[in-house]
Design brief:
This protein has 327 residues and is an all-alpha fold. Helices cover 64% and strands 0% of the residues. Helix 4 packs across helix 6, helix 8 runs antiparallel to helix 9 and helix 12 crosses helix 13. The longest helix has 17 residues. The protein is globular. The N terminus is likely disordered.
Length: 327
């Protein structure tokens, strides 16, 4: 049986502290609301219009699949349109998130994703769903294999690279501040391989934050990232300067990647901006971080503000207030 619609209202306190994974994708947010009320036809239209914009398609499936009621409504859609591969993929992706929440069987989610991947051989999204599952539950060799499957179909896949960096950062926590750690090599390689306008230019900053998460959790770095020297070393400064310079050229409002003829903002650009603002704030660059906070607007993300075990909302708002006050 399909679930009833959720209550229409939420408390102001909860809404004020919520992080919306849809980010600035208003069409996605509207379709998600419709889906929670059982109107899957709006999701069908949204996904059809997304086409083979693989980063946007992956982002939209991932966000839709996170809702608690998505699996039930996706089954309704699949019953009404058994030939719909998007319905099958949404159900499979929802089963991944259920497994990650401990509400479903991981093997069932794997089987569903593999079945859909056979129906959509060119689509990296079923493999992205599997990668998200194995990043948390699987063996490292499986994570690497699935990343290769995604990259074979879309070499610059943003979300897949972030998942891979997060997993690689967890290798050898006892190695400490090793500048030759494999996560740094991977991030630098991916950034170098990508085109000049690719947001993978920010990946070395993401790798730096993910490694901090691992080291701070292990107790070899302070729990307060500002008190850590992780962002003030020579290598860290070089990485962050390169990423900030890329943002100035490609992701500013008047840049080619953000408002030029025929261009659209990358669907996950706010993820990168949160990592970059966090890094610049921890580095002590108030003016630069204030500019990034302005661009982020209300689209904060839990990572990396939660690292290693902080309240992300409090950390984000405190950093934003301090940066604006000092800039």
């Amino acid at each position: 049986m399909s679930p009833p619609p959720p209550p229409l209202g939420r408390s102001r306190k909860r809404a004020a502290h919520a992080f919306d994974p849809a980010l600035d994708d208003a069409e996605l947010a509207d379709a998600r609301t419709a889906l929670t009320q059982g109107r899957w036809s709006e999701v069908r239209a949204l996904l059809a219009a997304t086409g083979d914009d693989w980063d946007r398609r992956g982002h939209r499936f991932d966000v839709l699949a996170q809702e608690q009621t998505t699996a039930a409504w996706a089954r309704d859609w699949q019953l009404a349109e058994p030939e719909s591969t998007d319905a099958a993929l949404l159900l499979a992706y929802a089963s991944v998130h259920r497994a990650l929440r401990g509400k479903g069987r991981s093997e069932k989610a794997r089987d569903a994703c593999r079945a859909v991947s056979a129906l959509l051989p060119a689509d990296p999204t079923p493999w992205l769903a599997l990668l998200a599952l194995e990043r948390s539950l699987g063996r490292e060799e499986d994570v690497v294999r699935l990343f290769d499957e995604v990259r074979h179909r879309h070499p610059e896949h943003h979300h897949a690279h972030h998942l891979m960096v997060a997993r690689l950062a967890e290798r050898r926590p006892a190695a400490g501040q090793d500048p030759l750690h494999e996560v740094y090599d991977f991030a630098a390689w991916a950034a170098e391989q990508a085109p000049a306008d690719s947001p993978l230019a920010v990946l070395p900053v993401v790798a730096h934050a993910e490694r901090y998460r691992v080291l701070a959790t292990a107790g070899s770095e302070p729990g307060d990232p500002v008190a850590s020297g992780h962002w003030t070393g020579r290598r860290a400064r070089q990485v962050m300067k390169a990423a900030f310079d890329w943002w100035l050229e490609w992701e500013m409002p008047d840049s080619p990647a953000n408002g030029g003829p025929g261009t659209t903002t990358h669907p996950r650009c706010r993820v990168d901006l949160n990592f970059l603002a966090h890094a610049k704030f921890c580095e002590g660059r108030a003016a630069e971080s204030a500019a990034l906070f302005h661009r982020i607007g209300r689209h904060a993300t839990p990572a990396p503000w939660s690292y290693p075990d902080r309240d992300p909302y409090k950390a984000f708002t405190a950093a934003r207030g301090a940066a604006r006050g000092s800039a």
